[in-house]
């Protein structure tokens, strides 16, 4: 059983988030709910949490403080932040606890699921995070520049195991800043965009009957065949085999 922690003080939002995760992940996943950071830490200490999804602004104990405790006790736990506030001190703290994603509300379900799936299947990196840089308000020229460099990185490296953190480091941006600027340009997170791009390339390869489905997954950055099939089905509504049968 894989354990996921969801900490969100707004009950309706928490219920909606849990439902999205439960419907998408299915059996084999236990989702634990917390209404504040202190309860999140309690649940984390009671269960082998693999991914912690934390709202930042919560009563009793903030998501930032809870994340720091979780990171200190289990650096391998994937931390995802959700927040409606775009503040530099939050970005700095997200870097400090090696957060895998920093999602600004409102986010769409595919963006959230892409981040959760990536956190489940990707081991955290050991390298030091990039230093924080004061974020600038996103504007068209700057967002376009970041977007162009990010797209070039994706198109060049999508066949490898990459993440938003890898792209930010390669392009010399802090992770939360890069995440925010990418979404300002494309309307979705780096992780969600990367998943969609990989699946588009996979659809092209599936139209070639000489390429095995397993090889298709590997060629677009998914060495785990089960993970590839799961992402493909979520984005297309079909398994790779069903898609190939319908397009040959």
From TrEMBL:
Gene3D superfamilies, sorted: 3.40.50.2300, Homeodomain-like
Q: Which GO terms describe its molecular function?
A: DNA-binding transcription factor activity; sequence-specific DNA binding
Q: Which GO terms describe its biological process?
A: phosphorelay signal transduction system
Recorded hits in InterPro entries, A to Z, give: CheY-like_superfamily, Homeodomain-like_sf, HTH_AraC, HTH_AraC-typ_CS, Sig_transdc_resp-reg_receiver, Tscrpt_reg_AraC-type_HTH
Response regulatory domain location, by residue?
Answer: 3-120
Write down a Pfam family by its short name: Response_reg
- Which SMART domains does this UniProt record tie to the protein? HTH_ARAC, REC
Domain annotation HTH araC/xylS-type: ranges? 148-246
* Keyword field: DNA-binding, Phosphoprotein, Transcription, Transcription regulation
> Which residues get modified to 4-aspartylphosphate?
55
Q: Does the keyword Protein transport apply?
A: no
What the entry lists under PANTHER family is as follows: ARAC-FAMILY TRANSCRIPTIONAL REGULATOR, HTH-TYPE TRANSCRIPTIONAL ACTIVATOR RHAS
Function of the protein: May play the central regulatory role in sporulation. It may be an element of the effector pathway responsible for the activation of sporulation genes in response to nutritional stress. Spo0A may act in concert with spo0H (a sigma factor) to control the expression of some genes that are critical to the sporulation process.
Q: What is this protein called?
A: Stage 0 sporulation protein A homolog
Q: Which organism is it from?
A: Candidatus Gemmiger excrementipullorum
